[in-house]
Amino acid sequence: MSTCPSVLPRFTDRRSDIEELPLELFEEILSFLDIPSIKRLDLASPVFHATCLPHFFRNLALHGDRRPAPKFLDDFKGWTPVPCLRKVELESLKEDISADLLPWCTKTGSVKVDGCPIGNTAILPSLNVLRVLELANLTFSSIVDYFELLASLSQTVNELKVRRITFRESESTWIVGRRIEIERLETDSDADLAPLLRDDCPVSILSLRVASLQQPNLRDLEDLVRRTPLLIDLSIDIDGSQAPSPVTRTTFPTFLLTLLSIHSDDPAPLEELTITFPIRAASNPSVFQDFVAALTRPRFWNLKTLNLRMLAPLFYAAPEFHQRFDRWTEQFELEIEAARTGPMINVTAAMNLISSVKWTTNANPRKYFLLTNEFEEQRRQS
User: Fold this and answer.
1) How confident is the model over 181-230, as pLDDT tens digits?
2) Which of 22-26, 165-169, 170-174, 366-370 has the lowest mean pLDDT?
3) Does residue 268 lie within any of the structural domains?
4) Residue 202 domain-assigned?
């Protein structure tokens, strides 16, 4: 919660008896107050301000258009920095404010830097309790600079989200050094995932437990699954509505069956699998018969939950399509139950409607036209 200029403290030199209270006792009093009361008390004196501020000023979100950085810097000019921030989000800034911001966030546990000058990442190596880091829409000079930043992170980091990271130089070599171990990973594309799988990457995925991947390259996906013996929750978005990638150039059936055939028949720790894909794939019975057969293999013995997210055009909101979808889901569950000898899998299936604007904007227009005709033909026959 940020502080606006109209409520910034205006103190006098007079000192009250309550200001002489031991800090421990004053902290105990604060623990019984709500946020509005603490904010009012914060305005009473500089002594109160230094103690109260960390109790309510914990999250900072700056946006280049809505909450510009110069406004924040002007509001806090002259104030002694207090390392009270626990969550910082910088988005679309035009300035590098790392030097001014750092004293406020040395105890920050979550940081997002999205579409800002790369200099704003200079605060990251000094955050010794950082746990969650999101880097988005950033351009590094080279992958070496990117790896240098990752190598400088505190080893407390266990969740990494990278989205649309680019490099001015495509080929660079990094000498392997210090590594950080992450347990959670999110990527937006195969281009985000690939650098993290390089042998010289300072990020280790050996302890990875949760991964959410959009449009992964099939080879990279195989590599990730093979190298993550502790992975228990995997989400894969292969909806085809994003920009073209190696996955969208692979037919969905081939991708799905290859995914399920990854590695060996040794039981994997995977407990939850979520797959997002175009609904037209469900119209191919042989694909899902093979899908059911794959789920009966020992490799998926520990799988407890299977989430299927099928993307469909808006006209699938019609009742007849929902009825057909429910029948398909019920039949799919019955086939798994009949074929599987191990523990049962809880199957959840959802149909997510997407407007034709998204399909025509992000997907191949010709493919969308053919897809729409296919759906229309199915609707006429139902």
Assistant:
1) 999 999 999 999 999 999 889 999 999 999 999 988 888 988 998 899 99
2) 366-370
3) yes
4) no
- Residue 200 inside a domain? The answer is no
Q: What is the pTM of this model?
A: 0.77
Name the average pLDDT for the chain.
Answer: 79
- The secondary structure of the chain in percent helix, strand, coil, rounded to multiples of 5, reads 40, 20, 40
Angle, helices 285-295/319-339, rounded to nearest 10 degrees = 40
DSSP for residue 67: B
Could you tell me the two tokens for 339?
Answer: 């074929």
DSSP letters of 67-86? B-HHHHHHHTTTSPP----S
Number of domains in the chain: 2
Q: Is residue 283 part of a domain?
A: yes
The CA distance from 192 to 282, in Å, is 29
Q: Tokens 């609707």, residue?
A: 379
The whole-angstrom separation of Cα 117 and Cα 92 is: 8
The C-alpha angle 332, 335, 340, rounded to 5 degrees, equals 125
Identity of residue 104: W
